[in-house]
Structures are given as C-alpha cells and as structure tokens.
C-alpha cells in the first residue's frame, strides 16, 4: 500500500481538494483507494457522500475524534490532514514509507505559515530519519499576480521540490460539489487542469 499525506497547518490551503482529486484519479485507474479523513469537519467524507454511484468506488475511513484509522487491503491510502496539523500529528499518523504533499497558497499569510512548517520539518530528527518523499504544490494560482511570483521565488529557495502549480478555477468547485474529480468532468473543460496534474501524478509514480 502506498500512503499519501496532504498536510499544512494553515487552514483553507486546499488540502481536501488535493486529497479528493488524487483519490478520484487512482480510483478511476482501477486502483483500490481509501480516503482517510483526519479532520472532524469531515470535508473529505462529505465529498465522498456526494459521489455518484457510477463512479469508481473509494473506501471512506474516519480518523478523527478517536476513530481507528487502520487501513488494509488497498493500493493507496490518501490522508486528508486537519488544519493546525502539527509534526506530532504527522508522527502519529505516518507509519512506514510515505508521500507528503504540502499545498501553499500565493498569499502573505500562507507563505509565512509554509515557511514555519517547512523549517519545523527540516529541524526535526524524526523527519531526517523517516523515508518521506515531500513535494510542494502551489495551489489556487493566478499566474499573473505578484504574489504568485513571490511564492515561486520562495519555493525555489527551499530544499523541497515544487511539483506543480494548480490554477484557481471553478472546475474544482464543481468537482467538489458533485463528489467527483476533474478527470470525471467533460474533457474539453479540463484540458489545462489535466496538464497541470501530469507532473504531480508522475512524481507520485516513483517510490517514496
């Protein structure tokens, strides 16, 4: 089983959007997928409740308020971590090899929060010893804005790769509302979005 954790202590950065889209993609590839919701707001599980019956199935797993989050018998477990997620939360949740995706928005508050989180990761001996493949995702991006340029400049200075930039579009709102992924939407509408996902899916295809 491959594990993907989507985490950032800053709320509203798009963790649930990334987690659900990744889960939907792999389910559509005939993979057995568990979507593990660590947030008591249950946003990922709410998305899953809206999923049409004709879509590839995804196993819901509750991992908040003391629920047992043991996951077995799947190809992928996708973990949607909560806002205010700490390093201790990650240590408790991650067992074995894993991917860690960190979405960051192009705003002053989000960049500062991202700096603190990345610094905490780099300083922690647990992280240095663990086999965790970390990737950064610039999320809800409008490429013609100054703060997108600031975000890219910042990410180029850290020792973790910027995997891709995902644009700010209503396609993700429609997908979240309907319990589907962008890969389930009409192809002509999501050409640009699929192109932006290619680097991330290629990155996930390599072992952590």
Separation of the first and last Cα atoms: 12 Å
Number of domains: 1
Major sheet strand order: 3-2-4-1-5-6-7
> Based on DSSP secondary structure assignment, what is the total number of beta strands?
7
Biggest sheet details: 7 strands, parallel
Structural class: alpha/beta
CATH fold-level topology: Rossmann fold
Order of secondary-structure elements: EHEHEEHEHHEHEHH
Helix fraction? 25-40%
Radius of gyration: 16 Å
Averaged pLDDT, please?
90
Name the CATH superfamily assignment: P-loop containing nucleotide triphosphate hydrolases
Number of helices: 8
Gross CATH architecture: 3-Layer(aba) Sandwich
**Residue runs with pLDDT of under 50 for 5 or more positions:** none
> How would you describe the oligomerization state of the chains in this entry?
single chain
CATH class: Alpha Beta
Give the overall silhouette.
Answer: globular
- Measured by DSSP, the beta-strand proportion falls in 15-25%
């Amino acid at each position: 089983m491959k594990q993907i954790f989507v985490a950032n202590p800053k709320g509203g950065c798009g963790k649930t959007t990334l987690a659900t889209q990744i889960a939907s993609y792999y389910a559509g590839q005939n993979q057995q997928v568990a979507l593990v919701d660590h947030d008591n707001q249950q946003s990922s599980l709410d998305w899953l409740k809206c999923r049409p019956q004709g879509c590839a199935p995804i196993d819901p797993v509750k991992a908040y308020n003391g629920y047992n989050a043991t996951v077995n018998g799947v190809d992928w477990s996708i973990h949607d971590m909560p806002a205010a997620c700490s390093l201790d939360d990650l240590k408790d949740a991650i067992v074995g090899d894993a991917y860690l995706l960190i979405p960051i928005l192009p705003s002053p508050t989000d960049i500062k929060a991202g700096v603190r989180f990345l610094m905490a990761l780099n300083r922690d001996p647990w992280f240095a010893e663990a086999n965790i493949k970390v990737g950064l995702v610039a999320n809800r991006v409008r490429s013609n804005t100054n703060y997108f340029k600031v975000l890219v400049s910042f990410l180029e200075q850290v020792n973790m790769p910027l995997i891709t930039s995902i644009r700010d579009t209503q396609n993700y709102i429609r997908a979240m509302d309907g319990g589907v992924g962008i890969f389930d939407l009409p192809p002509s509408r999501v050409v640009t979005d699929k192109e932006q996902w290619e680097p991330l899916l290629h990155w996930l295809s390599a072992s952590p």
